[in-house]
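Page 37, continued from 36.
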């Protein structure tokens, strides 16, 4: 044990020369390290585990240097991400981009599409005006300055004939102006660098030798055209949506400039071949690829991706298509071109058009991807599902392959690596719906909700298809309480149900004997704008009028029936419903069961005004209500109405009225005559 007199004195050592100070630090470095390790073991102070391990290794070093932790660098969105993590999605709210103006909150899927297009059209028109007239927007009031919100330069600033002016027109996507500038440079004898030529070819091939329509420019073009021309043009494109809007032109500027080049490298061939494939000239693209090989130019991965995707258009028979794909892959290997994810996805997509060969060859492609260390994307699995769904004679085969795909995907977060990645979830949910596999549907929905995978559902139209299929699956297979839970969770924040989805919900309520919820569902039908769908409204009325219920439920049904009656008015700027005999009969029966005889009599008068015929059961129910209310005059009028419609039940109703009501002599004479007339007609 060290005595107090033998303990080192900090004051004495600090007063000694530098040699004593260094001796003191060396002697006590072990105690300092132990103290620091104990301190950091209790407090992390924001250190990551990697930094703590690095500090521990440094402390063990013979050199007595201390590691100072680096400053934490936060991303620009860190604060927003932290705030976003503290709140959840409100299932009762409309989509976020409609919350600025409650008046523009869509209620139906058609309104959602219309309002979305209107918002985007307004932004495009404003951006077009700002970019076309930047001189009117020179003052910047924004603090801090936000460059992306300032006007962009859309007009060339360089007017002289130079390569810099050509680069400016290429960056502004001025196809025609860039081609004219290139021709002027060639005529003046000015050489254009290969890099600038590459950019020009890429621009021409991307937009098929046409100037791209600027944002807002299409609205200006439509304004100059007549309404009939716009309707005809849009209708033509809608009918031929599967065709390309622009097709490759013969002797285009891209081919002319390509032929003028003294040397043609891989980048030049790549731009031309990819442009031809993109704009429907697959045969010409393959011919250009042959010319490239004859010129001993090595292709790149983009050329092979384009040619593989175009292979089904180059051959007619299934085996010939696969042979061409195999030949392209072999040439790719011979030229030592490394394939990427898009290469294998192009092969899988082309296999969807190879018939019976697809199922076998698709598995080889997946094994090849695994051997090369390329992980499949969601588009890869979407192509696999399409191949096996088409090849399977029954739905079980597609379900099995989807089970295997889901086991591979697990609970991971995905990013978009292929434009077709957004099709996977919709295809997977369709398979679940076709095979009525609820458990697998829940797995897919759980994967969608994991992280930010919901972004891979695609646009609003594809999201509506996905959630519609999921909701239909729930209505068919799940208990009604769970269905209603999902109903409140999805609508309207994620899904605007179509009439078929609401019909499935009505059937689910009927299956689980929860028809007491029908008035609540009717309110949602009205709020969603589907109260003008005749088949949906009549199915709702038929379910309410089919059976008798407790007085409380019948009272709620009667109030709902009166509200449904108002939907037939046609005074709300919407398509009005047409009265049918079934709808009139159902509403009248519901009112009679709730002892609302005056309102029921008004409904009965509508039969005559709308030229509709009531059924015998409705007249019997109405006669019973008149008997309970001691209304002989109403009963006589009911028999007269039956005679006016020429119903076979007229004689029976007249005889029953004579037996059950105390009528006057005049009423008795009328009823006797109606009874005789009815028997004669029978």
């Amino acid at each position: 044990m060290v005595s107090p007199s033998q303990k080192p004195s900090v004051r004495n050592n600090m007063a000694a020369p530098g040699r004593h100070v260094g001796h003191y630090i060396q002697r006590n470095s072990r105690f300092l390290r132990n103290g620091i390790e104990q301190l950091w073991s209790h407090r992390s102070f924001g250190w990551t585990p990697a930094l703590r391990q690095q500090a521990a290794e440094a402390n063990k070093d013979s050199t007595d240097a201390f590691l100072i932790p680096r400053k934490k660098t936060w991303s620009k969105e860190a604060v927003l991400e932290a705030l976003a993590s503290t709140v959840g999605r409100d299932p009762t709210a409309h989509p976020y981009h409609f919350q600025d103006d409650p008046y523009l909150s869509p209620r139906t899927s058609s309104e959602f599409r219309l309002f979305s297009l209107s918002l985007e059209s307004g932004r495009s028109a404003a951006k077009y005006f700002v970019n076309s007239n930047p001189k009117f927007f020179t003052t910047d009031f924004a603090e801090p300055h936000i460059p992306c919100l300032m006007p962009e330069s859309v007009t060339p600033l360089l007017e002289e004939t130079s390569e810099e002016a050509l680069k400016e027109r290429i960056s502004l996507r001025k196809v025609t102006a860039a081609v004219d500038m290139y021709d002027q440079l060639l005529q003046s004898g000015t050489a254009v660098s290969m890099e600038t030529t590459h950019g020009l070819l890429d621009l021409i091939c991307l937009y098929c030798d046409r100037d791209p329509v600027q944002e807002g420019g299409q609205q200006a073009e439509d304004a100059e055209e007549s309404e009939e021309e716009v309707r005809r043009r849009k209708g033509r494109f809608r009918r031929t949506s599967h065709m390309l809007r622009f097709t490759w032109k013969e002797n285009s500027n891209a081919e002319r400039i390509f032929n003028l080049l003294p040397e043609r490298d891989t980048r030049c061939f790549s731009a031309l071949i990819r442009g031809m494939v993109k704009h429907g000239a697959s045969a010409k693209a393959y011919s250009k690829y042959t010319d490239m090989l004859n010129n001993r130019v090595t292709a790149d991965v983009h050329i092979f991706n384009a040619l593989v995707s175009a292979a089904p258009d180059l051959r007619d028979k299934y085996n010939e298509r696969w042979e061409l794909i195999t030949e392209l892959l072999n040439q790719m290997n011979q030229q030592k071109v490394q394939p990427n994810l898009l290469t294998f996805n192009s092969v899988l997509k082309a296999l969807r058009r190879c018939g019976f060969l697809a199922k076998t060859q698709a598995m080889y492609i997946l094994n090849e991807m695994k051997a090369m260390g390329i992980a499949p994307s969601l588009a890869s699995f979407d192509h696999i599902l399409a191949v096996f769904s088409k090849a399977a004679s029954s739905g079980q085969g597609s379900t099995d392959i989807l089970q295997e795909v889901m086991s591979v995907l697990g609970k991971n977060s995905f990013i978009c690596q292929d434009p077709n990645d957004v099709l996977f979830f919709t295809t997977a949910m369709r398979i679940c719906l076709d095979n009525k596999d609820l458990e697998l549907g829940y797995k897919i929905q759980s994967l969608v909700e994991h992280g930010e995978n919901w972004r891979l559902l695609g646009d609003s139209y594809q999201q509506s298809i996905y959630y519609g299929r999921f909701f239909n699956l729930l209505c068919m297979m799940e208990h009604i309480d769970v269905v209603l839970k999902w109903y409140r969770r999805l609508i309207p924040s994620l899904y605007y149900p179509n009439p078929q989805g609401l019909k499935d919900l009505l059937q689910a309520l009927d299956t689980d004997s929860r028809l007491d919820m029908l008035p609540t569902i009717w309110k949602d039908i009205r709020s969603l704008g589907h109260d003008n769908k005749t088949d949906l409204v009549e199915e709702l009325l038929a379910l309410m009028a089919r059976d008798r219920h407790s007085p409380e439920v019948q009272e709620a049904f009667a109030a709902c029936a009166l509200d449904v009656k108002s939907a037939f008015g046609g005074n709300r700027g919407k398509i009005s419903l047409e009265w049918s005999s079934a709808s009139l009969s159902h509403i009248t029966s519901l009112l009679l069961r709730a002892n609302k005889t005056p309102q029921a009599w008004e409904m009965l008068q509508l039969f005559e005004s709308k030229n509709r015929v009531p059924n015998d059961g409705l007249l019997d129910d109405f006669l019973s209500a008149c008997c309970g209310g001691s209304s002989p005059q109403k009963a006589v009028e009911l028999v007269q109405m039956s005679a006016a419609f020429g119903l076979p039940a007229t004689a029976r109703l007249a005889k029953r009225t004579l037996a059950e009501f105390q009528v006057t002599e005049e009423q008795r004479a009328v009823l006797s005559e109606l009874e005789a007339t009815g028997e004669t007609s029978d």
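The chain has 33 helices and no strands. Flag for discussion at group meeting. Confidence is low (pLDDT under 50) at residues 1-47, 216-244.
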